Amino acid sequence: AIYFIILLVIGYYGYKQATGNLSEYMLGGRNIGPYITALSAGASDMSGWMIMGLPGSVYSTGLSAIWITIGLTIGAYVNYLVVAPRLRVYTEVAGDAITLPDFFKNRLNDKHNIIKIISGLIIVVFFTLYTHSGFVSGGKLFESAFGLNYHWGLISVAIIVILYTFFGGYLAVSITDFFQGVIMLIAMVMVPIVALIQLSGWDTFHQVAEMKPTNMDLFRGTTFLGMISLFAWGLGYFGQPHILARFMAANSVKSLNSARRIGMTWMILCLAGAVAVGYFGLAYMTVHPEQTAILKDNNERIFIGLAQLLFNPWIVGVVLSAILAAVMSTLSCQLLVCSSAITEDFYKGFIRPTATQKELVWIGRFMVLLVSAIAIVIAQNPDSKVLGLVSYAWAGFGAAFGPVVLMSLFWRRMTGTGALAGMLVGALTVIAWKPLTGSSLYEIVPGFILGMIAIYVVSLLTPASDKVMARFDDANKAYNAAR
Questions:
Q1: What does the pLDDT look like over 184-219, one tens digit per residue?
Q2: Contact of 29 with 18, CB cutoff 8 Å
Q3: pLDDT tens-digit profile of 253-271?
Q4: Nearest-CA neighbor of 305 among 317, 288, 292?
Q5: For 250, which DSSP code?
Q6: In contact, 456 and 418? CB cutoff 8 Å
Q7: CA dist., res. 382 & res. 377, Å (int)
Q8: Contact 43, 243 (CB under 8 A)
Q9: How far is the CA of 92 from the CAs of 23, 52, 167, 252, in angstroms?
Q10: Model pTM?
Q11: Cα-based torsion angle of the residue sequence 371, 375, 376, 377 in order, rounded to the nearest 10 degrees
């Protein structure tokens, strides 16, 4: 209850401070500092899978489960270093774009709004699935951790997230993400340290290895395609609208340097903590086999189980709120980005081009409600496969938008037709890859590669616009000056 009250207070603060126009509501007026930028990006990225899915995977298979964390860490660092500063400048120079579709339209002089329509539709479709997975995670958390009915848990999470997102907009979402990121960090550091103390200290590593030598085998159960697939998760960062929006909202290019250091430190500590929870949880349950009943035959409950066994109920409440923080931070930013796409790219672009800023803010709020309602209806099935939905949406965004974002920032010769071709090829490849090939290769790999090739080939086959290339040159000059 205290946690929810804090979130609502932050929502009210955001409502009073930065909801005067659509730019403030959707991007906080591009005035977000490095600490909030970093932890907001991290918290919106690392959802419940980091606290439940990753420890559960390590608990089940050993250290061979860490490869996905390596791929994600490399991808996040390159995204901060290469994409973030240029995107911050280029989106502002390109007509002060506040959404990716708006940026693509302005950057490529899309007079007929075709790129804007297609990219907006991709965001709405994939984010509805993404948001659905967040609500399912919230319902399952309340059901497994607090004994609440799944549907009541779903509704509880939805009400709180909708309220502070509806009223407070981007500023409220970013501040709550910062707050939630701190809680996640404390939990992911505290639980494995206490577990290590309760066991045999550093000798626990040797004990786990002796219990089952394959627990230390980094290549256990892996294949070549499997390794590539796990590393390829890092490619997804270049096309995730909810993460890229954090870079667009930063107050300056220079602040992104600090945000990178803060964000990567936070990410590495949290991921290392998640791996340690699974690893030490394996040791703890081997030493105390009578306690395995607390997992209820679900290895993803290892974080919850360790917290309940190691701490008193008051501390357990704080620790378990980290899971809720992970779910809600991702959910709120997804709702906001999806709302911004509908409001800016469809309502303002096609229905009411002359809409006032106040009108657009309220339309944005009602779009939060609409997307939430659709996702809640879909999420009524508690057996929905959360990880599968997240994986699919991550690949969809990464393959559809990643190549276009990179080429927009680094290749002046890219044409609007080339960008559209890359976007469609990337998205359709993700959709069709598994049904057509049956391959175990993660669909983001062929989607990203074919999307990049399509952009390059089609751009060379279509005439380049002098206006488009001049706009790129202006943005590049502004970026060099901002550095």
A1: 888 888 888 888 888 776 676 666 666 666 666 677
A2: yes
A3: 889 999 999 999 999 999 9
A4: 292
A5: B
A6: yes
A7: 11
A8: no
A9: 11, 38, 25, 11
A10: 0.84
A11: 110
